[in-house]
Design goal:
alpha+beta; Glycosyltransferase; Maltose phosphorylase, domain 3; 4-stranded antiparallel sheet; 11 helices; 10 strands
């Protein structure tokens, strides 16, 4: 929304210096009361990966990498003899799912056991760290994180896979391997990690879209649900879930909320992620290289017939796009600022993009 990145830089730095001897970051800092939310320590790693792509400041990113590595090493201390992540210290809140209220937002087994969701979150973040290290030229570290992700994914699949339902469970009794709880959250982390074999991935995707008995993501975690819908090419499902946001104005809200009623906060930043998904998922504008030095534009309109927008680029200027569907043909107009190049991907076709304005028409897949 802006080229002014002082607030995200400050957030990244403060979380970095909040790190405890365990390797975990604090969830708010500086603060008179110390609070540790281990899953948010992993999201800090994801924040660094995001920043590295969306902003061209390699020196700042590299200054954060020792902290990224320390955080991931910190999680290794919570791996048990079974090779799985056991509940880290602190408050392991993941989402305000009503069924998880007994443990204040922590998923099943997230407070003191072995949680399928926490294990798959770690797998996913390890893959993000591997990608970031590779982009920074640290191929040995990238290979190590890929290996750790693959090893943990194999153990998590063996432990939490339910063959009858074609889903990954949130819990698994260590003695009888009973699986009683299932959520959209765990399926999203597994799909986004890229660590499922094709057959299981297909079954998980089908169940995520159609199983009515999954614990559903609420406002914050829906970001990862929307990322998964993008991965699956199901923008129809994403638009349907945006109903929660479309209803806010009718209910008297001027700002997005933290959680479904009863909400603790009626002005909560994490409820604004549909803004991100409008640009990055529906319009499909995403960095294609470190520092946003190139762009990939892969629109997914779903049930929409048109969408347009202007996205600021950190180097200056704007990326301006306009997409319109008519009789199965996408009419696309794309303008890139000076010095930026990239690709346009749609309907299995890839076209090069140069600075300036280009207009093309592409046949939609049937």
């Amino acid at each position: 929304m802006t080229r002014d990145d002082r607030l995200p830089r400050k957030a990244l730095r403060l979380f970095d210096v909040s790190r405890l001897a365990s390797g975990l970051t604090q969830s708010r800092y500086p603060s008179r009361v110390m609070q540790v939310i281990a899953p948010f320590s992993l999201w800090w790693v994801a924040m660094v990966a995001d920043y590295a792509l969306w902003r061209d400041d390699r020196t700042f990113v590299e200054s954060l990498m020792p902290g990224v590595r320390a955080t991931l090493e910190g999680f290794r201390r919570f791996l048990g003899p079974d090779g799985l992540l056991h509940a880290p210290e602190g408050w392991n809140v993941m989402d305000w799912v009503p069924a998880w209220s007994e443990d204040a937002g922590a998923p099943p087994e997230g407070a003191s056991g072995v949680s399928g969701l926490l294990n798959w979150q770690l797998v996913y973040v390890l893959t993000l760290a591997a990608d970031l290290e590779a982009r920074l030229g640290e191929q040995e570290l990238a290979a190590r994180y890929r290996r750790l992700a693959a090893e943990l994914a194999a153990r998590a699949t063996e432990t939490f896979w339910d063959e009858d339902r074609g889903l990954l469970a949130d819990d698994a009794d260590e003695y009888i391997r009973a699986r009683q709880h299932f959520s959209e959250h765990t399926q999203c982390m597994a799909i986004l990690s890229g660590q499922l074999d094709p057959a299981r991935r297909a079954r998980v995707a089908a169940a995520l879209l159609h199983d009515p008995d999954l614990a559903r993501t609420t406002i914050y975690f829906s970001h990862y649900l929307f990322e998964t819908y993008r991965e699956l090419g199901r923008l129809d499902a994403l638009v349907e879930r945006l109903g929660l946001w479309f209803d806010l104005a009718e209910r008297g809200f001027k700002t997005p909320v933290e959680s479904p009623e009863p909400s603790r906060s009626d002005c909560h930043a994490w409820g604004s992620h549909p803004l991100y998904h409008y640009f990055a998922t529906i319009l499909g504008i995403r960095p294609a290289s470190l520092g946003f030095r190139s762009v990939e534009i892969a629109p997914q309109l779903g049930p929409l017939t048109s969408a347009s927008g202007r996205l600021v680029h950190p180097a200056g200027g704007e990326i301006v796009v306009d997409f319109r569907l008519e009789d199965g043909i996408l009419h696309a107009s794309v303008t890139l600022p000076p010095g930026l190049t990239g690709t346009l991907r749609y309907a299995g076709q890839t076209l090069p993009l140069a600075e300036g304005t280009q207009e093309v028409s592409l046949v939609r897949e049937t």
